[in-house]
Specification:
The complex is a heterotrimer of chains A (307), B (384) and C (335). With 384 residues, chain B is an alpha/beta fold. Chain B has helices at residues 48-55, 82-91, 100-103, 110-121, 130-145, 151-154, 164-176, 194-211, 222-228, 246-251, 256-264, 328-337, 347-356, 366-383, and strands at 6-17, 20-32, 37-41, 63-72, 75-76, 93-96, 182-186, 214-219, 231-236, 239-245, 312-313, 319-320. The chains are: A mainly alpha (307), B alpha/beta (384), C alpha/beta (335).
């Protein structure tokens, strides 16, 4: 038999009594997010990493660049031959791994946030333009998006880095060139949906300007999905940066980056596993925390995407 | 008196949401007689669909059937093992849903969907090799019966290739493929245009006569029900507020809600008649008082309306959840119709009933009295 | 109407209005044939709306009635034909004049959920028209919004709330307040009660009637519900596949419908106020507006169709004063 969807009765029949106070969707979403313990915990971890990046000089026990060849490949504090002043041990040049890992958060967080912001802004503008103006604007942007989606991400980034040369700014550029595509697609789809809504028609019927319609009527409705997709992508960006640094195309030595730290420890994996492992764990922790937090954001801000 | 095909007693289906318990169906009693067409009318949130999904055991979490009995053909459905209940659905009770496009599987040809149902439920099919051929022939016959032109060719099409009205026909075909004893048509024409709606409703009426089945027509449209149903039940906020023969209820409604509904509808025969809206809105189904649920909107509200309201027999098989005290004539009319109320069942109950119904006339038909008192007792229990 | 202005002639005059949609998107414009992908939403519609009148438009889905409402307001650009408002041809107006005119013609929508921006407060939604045209001070704007909310039966205390905190009927009241706060002369009501429950429907209908008297409004009232249109309209236009097939005074049209389609519609409506008539429902479905049938568009479903109906499109004929019908049955005077 064809008997599937059961409509749950909406309890909003008389909202009068239940919620007396004005409450925006944003406030309701935030409340939902804060009720999600896993997501809030993960967000706290992400903030912890951010704080670590900002206050690295205050937290790090040692100078991340100071090498002491007597401590070459010194094991972590709890192992034989280790000492608690260098709790996670030292690398091949005798530098403190903990201090370098703390400083490494600076590179990851900076690039993650910078690429995310650039991509979100560019993607939002392109998506709004394509979705609202339609016509040729949409055709052109859609083609560019299609072409960019056709390139494998890592290979594109490697190629660009090879051409532009290393440097923090170049990494941001190389990643953002493709990264804006996803926010753009999300914003375009949301804009297309929003511009067909009667409330946009109502604003036009009242003689509202295009600027008003785009910024006041449509934009607020596309912001939530934009935030959701952007935070979610930040995890990927951090992995991409680590990959580039691992390949030696990212931040140049001696600046500590988790990716290059993992690469540095590669050859000592058997004898001195700690050199690669701890920066690897950092990547894992941060990426996992971002993913869980952004999932929470998605559940709270964009209930349509749930499951 | 013939036994009802389907009897619903004191059904309560609640949805446990984060905001609280939504009492979507709260103490519903309904009978469907063999061969009759019962129209269930109510606005959104009145519980009309949930009532019948509960009958079929199709309520999904957070919804739960909290209490009540559903007796179909003499069997208590709650006591049936799950696989027997599943067999019953589709074979003896079939349901069609409002949105035919989402209710049909878009990836399967229409033929396959009908044949599937027939194979699953039909016991008359020959065993072995001829089985699927017989099912196929039966599917074609049904499609022709519901008036799909060029059925032989169209049965190989996918649901999206049909128009809205034709899709609704296909769904009715699937529902009727095993010649059920009861068809539950949940808003079968809400998504359709007037002229197509007329076609589909005429089809359901025709099939009811042809198959001798009972039909429950769930609709928000009083006009649809008035034209096609023998009996009508009006629901409001999870409860039945009035039930009776369609003509009688529409000609002289007892319940203030029914009266208000009829007064608020523009009429084609008298377009200039002023319409009188019912003020206010349907109550929040969370945290309901035991009082009459129509009270906040009722123009005839009185102090007694703060008490639970039983469905009172109004004679001629009519029940209305009105308060006899609100209108003295009405009270007198009820009292005149009520024979011997049995005060022995439960002292409080008897006292409550006797307090409500001033002068009971013992001269009327004793059987009727017994029936009414049994019903009243149950109603009062349900309301308490 | 603003006092002192010329009170002659119809408020709205529509002549030969056509609206065709090209369904080919993007690059497909160059690869697909135009004819197979053009929807004829409106195909030669003409009528007048007198000042203070309510013209009802009835028709089934796809007949073009919603397109009509939006094209009359020039929210959609017509493919051909003209719309004049208070004597001014809308197509000839520049952007500034059009914007000024927007204040005088408004629209109320069907869907109480899609018609209010979920991210804006009631004050922002209702006050938008004032912010665009009158530009009062924030305090004054708040006063005016509060006053308007009172007129449509909402409490001014609701001003800072968001649409999702209201029921369907209340949302519809907010939509009405948004349209009426600029004091328009003309309002297109596009199925304003179709999404509402019966008891709420009556509240909104009564409100629209009351506001029409209070604000001296002229309505174009679009609906698929004959009883609703019959109740609120002075005259009714019946649409089928992008054309008006019959137009006449409401009561007369409902009692003596001339066009076979109007007759079928009236017969098909289930009513509470009539004995179950023995009727034969109209067969078939509405043809696709992608390829409307030649001749009279109703001939594929018409019980009276002749060879002439299949080839020649009927002209509008007058069967009684003010009652016009496009049907070959009425050739040579009233039948």
């Amino acid at each position: 038999m064809t008997a599937g969807a059961v409509e749950t009765p909406r309890p909003d029949a008389a909202p009068e009594a239940a919620r007396a106070r004005a409450q925006s969707i944003l406030a309701a979403n935030l409340r939902d997010f804060l009720a999600n313990r896993l997501a809030v915990g993960s967000a706290a971890v992400v903030l912890l990493f951010a704080a670590m990046a900002v206050f690295a000089p205050l937290i790090a026990p040692h100078d991340p660049y100071a090498s002491d060849l007597f401590r070459r490949l010194q094991p972590p504090g709890w192992m034989e031959g280790g000492e608690w002043a260098y709790p996670l041990g030292c690398d091949a040049l005798g530098r403190d791994i903990l201090s370098r890992a703390i400083y490494g958060a600076r590179v990851s967080m900076t690039i993650g946030v910078a690429v995310m912001l650039v991509a979100a802004v560019v993607g939002m503008l392109a998506g709004l333009a394509a979705g609202y103006r339609r016509g040729m604007t949409d055709v052109v942007i859609a083609r560019v998006v299609d072409v960019l989606l056709g390139f494998p991400y890592l290979i594109l980034a490697i190629g660009l880095m090879a051409v532009m040369g290393p440097g923090l700014g170049n990494i941001v550029l190389a990643l953002a060139i493709k990264e804006w595509v996803l926010p753009c697609r999300v914003v375009r789809a949301e804009t297309l949906a929003a511009r067909e809504m009667d409330y946009v028609e109502a604003a036009r019927a009242l003689g509202a300007s295009q600027r008003h319609i785009m910024l006041r009527e449509i934009l607020p409705n596309v912001l939530s999905p934009l935030v959701v997709v952007s935070t979610f992508r930040m995890a990927t960006i951090i992995i991409m940066e680590a990959s580039l640094s691992f390949l030696g195309l990212g931040v140049q030595p001696p600046v500590p980056s988790w990716g290059s730290m993992v690469a540095d420890g590669r050859q000592f994996l058997i004898g001195a596993w700690w050199v690669s492992t701890f920066p690897g764990v950092m990547i894992l922790l941060l990426v996992l925390a971002i993913n869980l937090a952004s999932q929470g954001l998605r559940d709270a801000f964009d209930p349509r995407l749930r499951r | 008196m013939t036994a009802p095909l389907l009897a619903i007693r004191d059904l309560r289906t609640w949805f446990h949401t984060r905001q609280g318990v939504v009492k979507a169906v709260d103490g519903v009693d309904l009978d469907v007689m063999p061969g009759e067409c019962l129209g269930v009318v109510g606005e959104s949130g009145s519980g009309k669909s949930v009532t019948f999904l509960s009958v079929l055991g199709l309520v999904k979490p957070p919804g739960r059937v909290e209490a009540g009995r559903v007796i179909f053909g003499g069997r208590d459905l709650a006591k049936l093992p799950p696989d027997e209940l599943r067999a019953l659905r589709g074979r003896d009770i079939a349901i069609t849903l409002q949105d035919a496009l989402t209710a049909l599987n878009p990836a399967l040809r229409v033929e396959e969907q009908i044949v599937e149902t027939i194979l699953a439920h039909d016991r008359d099919l020959p065993p072995g090799r001829g089985r699927s051929a017989a099912a196929r022939a039966k599917a074609l016959e049904m499609l022709r019966l519901v008036g799909i032109p060029d059925a032989e060719r169209r049965m190989h099409d996918y649901p999206h290739q049909f128009s809205g009205g034709m899709r609704q026909r296909v769904m009715i075909t699937i529902a009727l493929a095993c010649r059920p004893k009861l068809l539950i048509a949940d808003e079968p024409t809400t998504a359709l245009d007037v002229t197509v709606q007329a076609q589909v409703l005429a089809l359901i009426a025709r099939m009811r006569r042809a198959l001798g089945m009972s039909v429950v027509l769930i609709s928000h449209n009083l006009g649809v029900v008035a034209r096609y149903c023998d009996r009508i039940a009006l629901m409001y906020a999870g409860q039945v507020v009035e039930t009776g023969p369609t003509r009688a209820v529409i000609a002289a409604p007892y319940h203030p809600y029914t009266q208000g509904l009829l007064r608020s509808m523009p009429l084609l025969s008298d377009p200039d008649r002023p319409i009188q809206p019912i003020d206010g809105q349907v109550p929040d189904l969370i945290d309901l008082e035991p009082e009459c649920r129509f009270l906040p909107r009722c123009p005839r509200a009185a102090e007694i309306c703060r008490q639970p309201v039983p469905l009172l027999p109004m004679g001629d098989a009519r029940l209305a959840a009105v308060d006899p005290a609100a209108d003295s004539n009405e009270g007198a009319r009820i009292s005149a119709r009520l024979a011997a109320v049995d005060p022995a069942a439960d002292p409080n109950e008897g006292a409550r009933i006797s307090a409500r119904l001033a002068a009971v006339d013992p001269a009327a038909d004793p059987n009727e009295g017994a029936r009414i008192s049994a019903r009243l007792a149950r109603c009062v229990r349900a309301a308490a | 109407m603003t006092a002192g202005m010329a009170q002659t002639g119809p408020l709205v005059a529509v002549r030969g209005l056509r609206k065709h949609y090209d369904l080919r998107r993007g690059l497909r414009r160059f690869t697909e044939d135009a004819r197979a992908h053009t929807v004829h939403a409106l195909d030669g519609v003409s009528f007048d709306i007198a000042r203070g009148e309510t013209l009802g438009v009835i028709g089934e889905s796809g007949c073009g009635k919603s397109t009509l409402g939006r094209t009359v307001l020039r929210l959609l650009e017509p493919t051909a034909g003209t719309v004049s408002f208070d004597g001014a041809d809308l197509a000839g107006l520049d952007a500034a004049a059009m914007k000024a005119l927007r204040r005088r013609m408004q629209i109320v929508f069907q869907d109480p959920y899609a018609s209010l921006n979920p991210r804006r407060t009631v004050e922002q939604i209702v006050g938008l028209g004032l912010a665009i045209h009158a530009r009062p001070s924030p305090t004054r704007l708040r006063e005016l919004v509060a006053e308007m909310l009172g007129r449509v039966g909402l409490s001014p205390a609701h001003m800072q709330r968001y649409p999702h905190q209201f029921s369907g009927g209340q949302r519809q009241r907010i939509g009405i307040a948004r349209a009426l706060i600029v004091e328009p002369d003309f309002v297109v009501c596009d199925e304003p009660v179709s999404a509402l429950d019966v008891s709420i429907q009556a509240q909104i209908l009564a409100l629209l009637e009351e506001l029409k008297r209070a604000f001296d409004l002229t309505y174009l009232f679009i609906s698929h519900d004959l009883a609703v249109v019959g109740h609120i309209s002075d005259r009714i236009a019946v649409m089928y596949l992008g054309q008006i097939v019959e137009l006449g005074p409401a009561r007369r049209l409902l009692q003596t419908p001339a066009h076979p389609y109007t007759q079928a519609l009236l017969e098909a409506v289930p009513r509470v106020d009539a004995e179950a008539q023995d009727h034969r429902p109209l067969g078939g479905d509405v043809p696709s507006p992608l390829k409307p049938p030649p001749g009279c568009r109703f001939h594929t479903r018409c019980p009276h169709a002749t060879a002439q109906c299949r080839s020649i499109a009927p002209e509008h004929r007058t069967v009684a004063p003010g009652h016009h019908v496009a049907c070959h049955l009425y050739e040579g005077g009233p039948a």
